[in-house]
């Protein structure tokens, strides 16, 4: 009898020790980072598909169901998901992942942001007074986030502290290996026009001039007048135009045709389930596009 009880206790203890931390990531890039840092010690569910703009999703029952069983939510933050994540968390009724709790993690809160302090006026477009939220487009900041995420995961699984920290360090080393290669590829890049302010971190990291935006204001569709003014200001210069795949094609195509510049459409996120190498490949595509060599 006692042997049976002891065996049952050991079985339950082993199962508990081996239970993966249940992570819900808002975007594929955040899911990639959680998988990379957590390894086999985490189970990751991603809420936003790679081909959708994370600004404009809606809270769905499937999101609430995923969040209901989550130990940890890994979000981009800086109000990128403000239109849907708070509602999904409320609907999930899981107090452990409410903002301010250990189960809520924002990548943007772990690093310095660009574009901080603008007026919170929607007449100025899709503004983010807390700063530009698109930190996933800067691998260096992503490495900083990886270390912070490792420490957060340790709160849920201290037995794997060494694993989490080692994985974060390995990710940072890969970033450091790629940086010189990326910088060399864009050394002669003349400049870029983005559709939105979503790749500004990468351009700034690699010292590529941002010459303008297809949007007149963040989140505001381009007008004919704005596009004509943009073309006039850039006539006689070299450069490239890059949009995210979910942005409309017409405005970037007009600018490219008028200036005789190449136009590229690229994903902002890797696919759901992507590895760190997939993420680096995606950054490499943006680097090649900024260099006009894609």
Automatic annotation (TrEMBL):
Q: Which domain of life is it from?
A: Bacteria
Under Gene Ontology molecular function, one entry of this record is: metal ion binding
Gene Ontology biological process terms in this record: metal ion transport
| SUPFAM superfamilies given in the database record | Helical backbone' metal receptor
Question: Which keywords label this protein?
Answer: Signal
- Note the Pfam families from the entry: ZnuA
Where does the signal peptide begin and end? 1-19
Q: What is the protein name given in its UniProt record?
A: ABC transporter substrate-binding protein
Protein source organism:
Ectothiorhodospira haloalkaliphila
